[in-house]
């Protein structure tokens, strides 16, 4: 019988050494999943993440890999398949986030953002889907987006348009990879200190939404589990921002405090 992604299996989470990726790892570990913690260079923080996964009752391992080294994907997926349950879920969480503007954007900045935020998730998703299809199973991909794709402002120009590219890829892959793999996305609002923000700036802006509530990490983790466990959910992007996208902010929330204006 083909496995399904609702049953705890093996999940790969990119950029899982800290912040949102660590929270995902801890959540899925606690739910019984075997968690592969992808990291680029932050091995010490990845070890802390793995310890948290195990304390939550789960199991996993760490794989270090440069997502922009596209020639090394074959070797990476060979490691993924070794000594672990079949891979059934993927969260494309790793992200490049550097400030630029349309007036100042340079080719190198555009390239960095597109490689990490668009090309890598697309290529990882394709390889993941091939694994699932070839063994006759079911799989699910969750792409981490940004509520900026539904409420644009011109700040973080290269980052923003790379997330627009991933939004389009999410919809196209949801069609192309079915029926073997479902593809959805999450578009969160500000959840951690963002870019140039200080801790004080974050405290001032974290509840800048119609609900006047901060976006909790647990809200996003619950959304990811809902997507993974809902076998007929495909091609959907769920915004978790307290309704902030309805406010049509003129600038990124990082610049919406009196100190930053």
From TrEMBL:
Recorded source organism is Rhodobium orientis
Kindly give the InterPro entries that the UniProt entry links to this protein: NAD(P)-bd_dom_sf, SDR_fam
Q: Which Pfam families match?
A: adh_short
Annotated TM spans: none
The name under which this protein is listed is Short-chain dehydrogenase
Molecular function per GO = oxidoreductase activity
Keyword annotations for this protein, in alphabetical order, are: Oxidoreductase
- Family per similarity comment: Belongs to the short-chain dehydrogenases/reductases (SDR) family.
